[in-house]
Amino acid sequence: MASLQSSSGVITSLSDSSGRCRRGMTRATMNMPKLRIGGISLKLPVRDLVQKVLDMGVGLTAATTSQQQCSDPMVIAKLHAIMEVVADRVEMHQNIGEQRDSWNSLLLTSINTITLTAAAMAGIAATNVGGPLVALKISSTLMYLAATGMLVVMNKIQPSQLVEEQRNAARLFKQLHGRIQTTLSSGNPTSSDVEEAMEKVLALDKAYPLPLLGAMVDKFPETVKPAVWWPHHGQRQENPSGRTDGNGWSVELEEEMREIVGVLKRKDTEDYLRLGKVALKVNKILAISGPLLTGMAACGTALMGFSHGSWAAIPGVVAGAMASVVNTMEHGWEVGMLFEMYRSNAGFFRLMEETIESNLNERDVGRRENGELFEMKVALQLGRSFSGLKNLASASSHSSSRKGEAIINEEFASKLF
Q1: Residue 130 carries which DSSP code?
Q2: 84-99 confidence digits (pLDDT tens)
Q3: How far apart are CA 180 and CA 193, in angstroms?
Q4: Residue 141, burial from CB neighbour count under 10 angstroms (0-12, 13-18, 19+)
């Protein structure tokens, strides 16, 4: 009788311990006491459990090893080659950006020095007669002509705008370099990752070319458009039969993302395009006014000493002084850089719009980016928290139902810039 009770107690203990093992309590299983009945030690169940755990570990190791072996060595080699090219692009754009920043400073200082010196010589020549008048007049005229030619070239290439282009290119190439590193370290890269990386490199090369002649970005475009530095793909076809929930997505999250796209289009992108148009208009006026004033000053100094010499001295001095002021406003305040910055910011919001719309148009949620991760990325890019993002979408849905003042007073999506 006592033997039967002992056996039932052992069976009960073994069933309890195996239940705890199934619930994931490995420590309780490994520390199970040795039960003895009549001097016989029952170690067999413990050995079985340990063997199962070891088998699971071997299986996981084999799965990991097989996953690593599935990685194509050629794909990895290609991604490393692209990484080297991208790192070289970063160095190139940084070096050329520093060089063109020096151009802006040196040209601005040189042209202003030449212009002010010519204006001073024209003023001195207006108070003298005889031989010195001719020498000063000729020298002032030649200096004004030289300043006019230099201003035309400087206003054409816009060194401050070139510097901003190189800054953006270096930043975006660094970003691409980091993404390729993440792809390599995350597990199993494929040939599609290689193609995508190459397309992004070529798109960046096209958006921010290094040469000045032939391939330079138009500094005075007819219409202001957002900068585009990403490859364009065909819009994803909607799949009406696909699921709309799962993979971190829900109907509420889709509606939230649609509202955010609407705010980006109505407020952020539109506002930066408007500011870009203003900056472009101001830059055009200054770019035309500078050479025009130095040309007028050159004509004035050339006419000094004739019948209207006293009147000719006025544009020779005043126009030259005004030209230095205009040149300082245009290149000292870097109006071209402001235009490029507004254009680039508008492109950043346009890229966000296309990314969100691309995910929403893909009705099969299994092929989308994970919804929770995607929401976090959007929130960080806009400088908002999750609650702030939801409040923005809620406010947008309320304001879109109304018109007029409600839309004008609508909040901008981005908190960063």
Answers
A1: S
A2: 999 999 999 999 999 9
A3: 9
A4: buried
